[in-house]
Structure formats: structure tokens, C-alpha cells
Amino acid sequence: MTLEFEFERPITELEKRLKDLQSLSEEGSIDLSREISAIAEKIEAMKAEIFKNLEPWQITQIARHIQRTSTLDYIKLIFGEDNFLEFHGDRLFSDDKALIGGFATFEGRTIAIIGHQKGHDTEENIYRNFGMPHPEGYRKSQRILRLAEKFKRPVVVFIDTPGAFPGIGAEERGQSEAIAKSIMMMSRIKVPVICFVTGEGGSGGALAVGVGDRVYMLEYSVYSVITAEGCAAILWKDAAKSKIAASSLKIRAQDLLQLKIIDGIIPEPLGGVHRNPESVAKLIADILRRELPSLLSLPPGELVERRYRKYRKMGAFKIEQDLEENA
Fold first, then answer.
1. By 3-state DSSP, what share of the chain in percent is helix, strand and coil, each rounded to 5?
2. Where exactly are the structural domains of the chain?
3. Which among 251, 232, 261, 214 is positioned nearest to 56, based on CA atoms?
4. Which of 3.30.420.40, 3.90.226.10, 3.30.70.100, 3.40.50.720 is the CATH number of 60-312?
5. pTM value?
6. pLDDT tens by residue, 14-60
């Protein structure tokens, strides 16, 4: 195991010791099987303990791992490599490579797919703009949403972006309008929408395609109205306080489930989905298999009304006693 995160260092040191004992046992006549077995058990126990008690900033690091499974990876694993017809362009300006979309079939049913796309190396990340869409990306997704509604096809969304691209050109072409219109369209669309936060769910770039009848998060993903670095820069003028910001923002899946922002958590292999993407793809397929029939059975008007009520119920507030007394 290669050291990927600083918090994995104790595991890496034990694995090096285990490897040394295995080499010594193979080369010599000493039976070290008992010691090897004990260290192997300790490694597994330590892995379970470390990944069970991760801090929000540590989860953010896993969510950003360059090898983390991407939208195109999920499409290949769940729907089949040759079973996806990708749409390009917004019919207005250009084709945004950071947000992809199209149609595929799932167990005989045609569905629309929208998803952020990052790269697995520097060159691909530059090509995909690090998963940060321009306005034309959201207008492309609106094009797919209109087609999905016209042909009565459910929509599946994979969310993984640090946020919408904040460049001058993007702002000049109406970034905020494109995000707002996407949110409006998703809130009103008369077909089922199921969203999966697979990595980073950052800011309006994620919220723009995050309005769903069902919203699920992977165990080591994050979801927030702002990145930890952005929050730290605004509140403390210091990006070094990102760790504090991450803890305050309630960005973890378990926090958001408790706050009823999401509907469920999808377990990941220890270390992250990139260690065993097939297992997570199977769990996502199981959710689609379970949720799609029940959502498709609802009349369009009731579907939209339920979605509206779902988001209206989000959030909570508390009135302090002294404020009540002074009212």
C-alpha cells in the first residue's frame, strides 16, 4: 500500500514491518507465521479504526483523490461502455468538457445521465477544467433535462465538482443565471431525478444539478454550499484554517443525513471508492433498481409536489429563550 494520505502513515509503517518479516521468513528457516498473522490482524484493525473516525478535512482529501471514480467510470460500470450516447454542446456557445450528459439504458429502461467529469491525471484534469463547469455546461444539462421531460425519461446525476468555474469569461456568459435556471428546471421537471454525490459536492456548481427526488452520498464524499478553503478565506482571510472550516460546515454524509439534506449513504471500501469501484457501482445500480419503479409510478404533478415539499422541509432554526421573552 502506497502512502496516499498523512493519516495513513501508521498503517504504512506496519505494512513495511510486515513485508520485512515475510521476506525474512521466506529467506531463512525461522517460522514467523504467528508474528506475521498478528501484524496482519493489527493492520486490518487499524484500518477499520482510522477510517471509522475520519475528520471532515480528511474525508475532503479522500473525496478529492485524483484516482477517485468519475462519472464516465460509473457509466462504464453500471450501464456498459458501449451503452451511452453522449450529447455535446449547448447549442449556444461550445461544448463544456467538465460536465457531460447523454442517454443510456438500464435494464431495458432508457434514462438521461448528467455528471461532472474530472481527470485522473494532470493532462486530463486540464482538459476537463478540473471538473468546474462553465455556463455552457449547465446549459447543456438543461438541454438534456428538456429532452428527458419530453420523452418521459428519468434523470440520474453524478455530482463531483469543487464548484462552477469562477473565471471572467464564465461570468460574462452568465454563470449565475445558468446555475439558477438549472436549479429551477430541476425543481419543476416532471420526471424522476436521482442524484449521487460521488466526490466533491461544492458550491453552486454542485447545487445546480443537485435537486432530486432522491439524493445519495458516497461515504467519503462531501457536500456544501462552499469549499472549506473558500469558507476559511472569507471568515479568517486564511486558507490555512480550512480544517476548522471543514469541521464547521457539516460537509460529511452522516452530518447531512442527520440534517435530512440527503436520503442515504452509500458505503465505500476502506480507503475510498477507487480501491474497489465495482462494489460501489453495484450499490448504485441496486438503488436505481429499487427507486426508479416507485418514482415512475407517481403522477407527474404529485412527483413535482413531493420534490417541492422535500426541499421546503430542509433546515431548522432555534429561538433562544431570552429572545422569546423580549418579543
1. 55, 15, 30
2. 6-53, 60-312
3. 251
4. 3.90.226.10
5. 0.88
6. 878 888 777 777 776 676 777 778 888 888 887 777 788 889 999 99
